Structure formats: structure tokens, C-alpha cells
Amino acid sequence: MLMLLTLLNIVLPVFAIAALGFGFARQQSHVAHMSFINHANVMVFCPALVFSALLNNPVDLTRGWPLVTAGVLIYIVPGILLALVRNPGMSRQAFVVTGMFRNVGNIGIPLMMLAYGKDQLGDIVLLFVITNLLQFSLGLFVLSSGSSRWEWLRNPNVWAAVLGLLLSSQRDRIPEFVLTTVDLVGQIAIPLMLFGLGVRLAQDHLENVKQALRINVMYLLAGVLTLVPILWLLPLSQDWTRLIILSAMLPPAVLNYLLCELYDVEPRAVAGVVLMGNVMSLAVIPLVVWVTLTWF
Question: Where residue 21 sits, what CATH number does that domain have?
């Protein structure tokens, strides 16, 4: 019961902000255009969030190679498995990317800390860093394939991540007003992308519930199939094993919708899949946490 209440405290604000965007958009007499706002979020606010997170949580990517390896494989392997699915019901690019990248940020980090202890923060942040690096490199590479395979290199999120890693050891030398400004700008990103998700759903509605449910079940299955060889082959500690299992079973990241909107890769379908995945997490995540604490 305590874990369910904890999960509700984490997940319900996600739905509340999306519902705010949904209600606001439905009350307008004209169609709400979020294209400029979403573009600004990807190009300005998200890079600030990535840079600030890396700067405030210095990470040594060479530390704990089993965790780093597992953290990469839980995104790469599901992508390969999902790419083999025939007729996924939506664009293959959107289907694969949305299934690869999970909501490690605004759901995963607080949930892992509450479930497994604040002493795991360093390892949790490491997984968050890996997610961001892969989503803004490999993820953009896949989504931009229709235009230019190297367009992702022009995305400021990639360079924000690189800069954050390079400057994390020099944080004390950066003026405080710069750190505060970047932190404030980055705090806009997640609420704004949730609000935009609600606006998108208000315009298009979640029409194919069965398809969204089926796709999320395939995502979870891909996560389970990925975990089997990772847990068998890599020398993961008990704490690392729990973090990896939960990371692989989190719902799709809201950022997937925002990036698909930016690259015009079926954002309508992705919005429905993301929302359905977060609804399903209310049942899936407590079960996963219970399994990790009981059996691992």
C-alpha cells in the first residue's frame, strides 16, 4: 500500500499537468498551436535541463562498467527486438524509439530513490545520463532518417550533454548566476512537455486504445526479454540489478512525444502510446518493485 501511494504521488502530477493542457486546449475557440513552444522546449529548455543535471551530478562513466554496459543494453537491445516486429501499427521509427527510451527522469529517479534508498542516487543519475546521451544521439539519428542521418548533430541537446560532462568537474569555477539561470530554464522543460502532451491529446483524442495497449505490452515484453541475458551475463550487484530491472520496465518517456512532434513522425500516435504506458505503470511498477525487493 505504501508503494502504491508513493507511485501515485509521483505519477498523478504527470497526469495532472497533461490534464491541464488538455482542458485548456479544449476551452479555446481556436486550434491551439504548440509547434513553436515544442520547438523552443527541445532547442532551449531541454538542453538547459540536460546540462544542469550533468553539472549538478558529476558522473564518472568509467565507474562500474557492468552498470554502464547494462544501462546501454537496456535501450539498444529492445530497439533491435522492436525493429523486427512486423506491422507494429504505427511508423517503425516512432514505434522503435518510443519503445527504447523509458521515463527515467521525472518518474524513474524519484521512484528508485524511494524504493531502493537515497544512497543509490549516484548510480540512478548515471542511468539518467546514459538515457539522455542515447536519446539525443541514437534516438535523433533514427527519427531524422527521413531527412538527414546526421541532422541529430545539430541538436543542442547533444552538445549540452557533452558540455555538461566536460564541465562537471569545474562546476565551482562557473559563476553562480550562470548556474541559477541554467537551472531555472531547465525546470521549464518537463512541465511544458507534459502540458504539450495534453494539448496534443485534446486535438486528436486517444482513439485507438487497443492499439496503444498492445504496443505497450510489446514494449514490456521486449524489456523482459532484454533483462534475461543482461542479468545472466553481467556481474551486477544486487543494487544494480534492481535499478536495471526497474529501468527496463518504466513507461515510455514523455520526451518521445516531443521529439516525434519535432520531426513529424506520428506524434498523434506516440502521444496516445505514452499516455497509455503511464496509465499502465500504476499496475506494472508496484509489481516490478515488489519482485525486485523480494527475489533480488
Answer: 1.20.1530.20
